[in-house]
Specification:
- Helices cover about 35% and strands about 15% of the residues.
- It has about 300 residues and is of the alpha/beta class.
Length: about 300
């Protein structure tokens, strides 16, 4: 992870957080997995017929690691770009994107789409010894390979958006031209304290003992690195785990647009205002395409 500097659109100079050492990351990621909400895994299902055509794919992760399951959805007509959809912490995994119109809207707009499973929970692949941004980076590398030079965009929901942030603030995400996030907390520990107060001693232990990991997981510094590209954040006004003020603050640091849906709880914004959310995502990605005159060129964020 580069330890560079970025000037956020708020005018604040922010350093990209340094990745913790291998031993600390391994131990901290184990504790992270132990403290995370338990999931009751469901058997994976193929996408429904309206999402055809699609192709099951296996995303390589490197020596000693089994691949991540994924699904490739080619665009309708000539492709102008490609989008990675990163799922929330949900037993549905990538099946989360079978509903609510994200995939059809992107394909109609000329984007190939790749969905994937994080290793170790909804996936049928083992958790890796490290933070889940490494899985997101592997999925982005697969998108890059399949996109064959077309501009890359990302769309992360909840945990998916959380783990995309460290990827985008590293050299591995520098060719992404636009980003869209739903219901993303600024810090795993902050969210956990709100939602699971009975585990407070364990969260304080994490914060105190794994200090480098704790700093690395703070999305504020990562979000500031996104000032270079068009981005947008969406949240729900009724979301207790991710208050609207937190969503607005991440958007401010990234110089991004922000949509708060009044009557939405966590993961409900697209149900309450599907047209508004989809339109904002497509507008954000369109600006990214226009500001990328050649493949791999990243434009400034003036959305």
């Amino acid at each position: 992870m580069a330890d560079g500097l970025a000037v956020s659109r708020a005018g604040v100079v922010v350093a990209s957080p340094r990745r913790p050492g291998p031993l600390e990351e391994r131990l901290a990621s184990w504790l992270f997995a132990a403290l995370a909400p338990r999931l009751s895994a469901r058997s994976p299902a193929d996408p429904p017929p309206p999402l055809a055509p699609f192709e099951p794919v296996e995303i390589p992760r490197g020596p000693g690691l089994d691949p991540l399951p994924g699904t490739w959805y080619p665009s309708v007509g000539p492709a102008r770009g490609a989008t990675l959809l990163a799922p929330p912490w949900s037993p549905l995994g990538q099946m989360f994107f079978h509903r609510y119109g994200r995939v059809p809207a992107l394909r109609e707009a000329g984007f190939d789409v790749l969905t994937f499973e994080f290793g170790g929970f909804a996936a049928r692949s083992r958790r890796r010894p490290g933070f889940l941004d490494l899985d997101a980076a592997d999925a982005l590398a697969e998108l890059r390979r399949r996109a064959e030079g077309r501009p890359l965009t990302v769309w992360g929901v909840s945990a998916g958006g959380y783990w995309l942030h460290p990827v985008l603030s590293s050299d591995g995400g520098r060719d992404v031209v636009a980003a869209f996030f739903e219901d993303v907390s600024s810090h795993f520990i902050t969210w956990s304290k709100r939602m699971m107060p009975k585990r407070m001693p364990a969260f304080l232990y994490f914060q105190t003992v794994y200090r480098s990991a704790y700093r690395f997981l703070d999305l504020g510094a990562h979000a500031a690195q996104l000032a270079r590209v068009p981005a947008a954040y969406v949240g729900g006004a009724l979301d207790r785990g991710v208050p609207a003020a937190e969503t607005r603050d991440l958007a401010r640091l990234a110089g991004a647009r922000c949509l708060i849906v009044d009557d939405a709880d966590h993961l409900q914004a697209i149900r309450r205002d599907p047209r508004g959310l989809l339109d904002l995502a497509l507008e954000t990605f369109e600006v990214g395409l226009q500001k990328a005159p050649s493949a791999g060129t990243v434009g400034s964020n003036e959305a």
